[in-house]
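Z., the sequence and structure:
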Amino acid sequence: MAEVMSTAPADRGVDRRAFLARTAALATASAVGGVVGLPAVASAAGVTRAAVAPPGRYNPALAVPNAYVKPRPEAVADPTELTVAEAAWLIRAGKLTPEKLVEAYLARISRHETTYQAFNLVLAEQAVKAARAMARKPHRGALHGIPLAVKDNYYTAGVPTTASSYLFADFRPPYDATAVTRLVTGGGAIVLGKTQMGPLATTRATTPAGVVTTVNAWTPTNPATDPGGSSTGTATAVAGRLAASGTGTQTGGSITAPSNAQNLTGLKPTMGRVSLHGIIPLSYTRDHPGPLARDAKDAAIMLTAMAGEDPADPRSQGLPAVPKLIDAATPTYQGGKLKLRWKTRIGVLPGFTAGTSETALARQAYLAKLAAITGATIVDVPLPDEWELLTGSAFNNVRLPERTEPFLPYLRTDLRGFGVSVTGWLQGALLGGGEFITGQRAKLLLMERVLDQLFAHCDVVVQTGPVPFDILGLPEIGFPIGFTGAGLPIGTILGGLPYGEDRLLSVVAAYQAVTDWHLRRPADPPAATATGRSAAPAGLRLTADQVAQLSQ
């Protein structure tokens, strides 16, 4: 591949003080109902921007040459093995139709869904009809005719949207979430179904009563294996080849955790990069919609479709323009040798590679692979002052009043509507205003220290957990770096500066160019019984105490 000319990454031109001011205003907005105007954050010249269309309009950024990847020979025989970029190449070349691709995924759903339990609702007839219609329409880019799984807290017009909650059991929204509109109308994607999730996006996927539904695609007969949550169903659908890619939301790890657990690449963008309009809320200042995909290129395609300003969500307004994410996720070579698109200092926190566990050894090998790529510099970075205090549970719990406030009318009338997760909602109602304000101040102090102390030494930083960057609204990406001896995926997370999704994608794309972890797929689950019941053991249930401990 020829060298790709690169301009500055998006994070290079962002005014960090302006982002801090915007975070402070967002905290105020959460307290007064979201009517406070948020300061704009401009980006400097030299950043390559994508031509992102308004919601509901064709998105030309999805038709760039780098969005199409010639399929691997071993993937051509089974369309469900194709990445989004590979399927897009075949569809554009007329070698695969959207209808054939949808039918291939529906066939796997028919065979394996009783075991995986990834979907809350499969829209088979609707998907086939949409696929046939796409064959008659002009090609709309890399998502044209691509079957997706949509988390069941995204509004889908006229289609049940339950958030796995008693409160929304009969809810049929009158319109699509903005992100769904961008994917379907703007990109030409096809919704295969709505996926299982933790009740109101709190834990791994269960019924509102706490009965576990979705299993990890890598251990389908053992529901005790953590599949990650709350975007569990989307992760299992993509990992188990029931959908090409899908959407999730993250408030406390709900994209990166299931991605790490199931060998996927999940991207949680900067707060506001994707509109939250039409998504059932959990936290006004910490909810982030984003994609769960099979590799960095697919995550870039998905985020390119989902991102952009939305008049219906003030959090998405006044941001730097969306950069060329698909190009960023395309490996760069010079003289036939792989290099990072931009020279990048990769910060390593204390203790990240310590020990001899399988995870520690995988992390050591991962950093060694990165260090061997031209343009990558591995640097040890210190934890910011009072890190443990500022990222601990006491300050993290200030998210609970934000969760509770939209649902106070339900808490006052019928606690049974919250099922097994009611404890957390009550805890939010009992926290005082003083605690909430102190917590918001602590968040701003943490943000200042992360930007000034941590990112003074690096451009991206390894993460040992998602919560700190969720608190701050900073972007992060989870991706696979190995497997345990028992065959379970090992993942890691990289965090970046505000609006630095393009740099994160560039690093992961380069790593995936020299590794094959992301290409590995789980074996098919055992066949269902003659009665059609799942081959997996049933009956695992989370208690109220477990839910309170696990809730994001």
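The longest strand covers residues 337-348. The first helix runs from residue 16 to 32.

Let me know what you think.
H.
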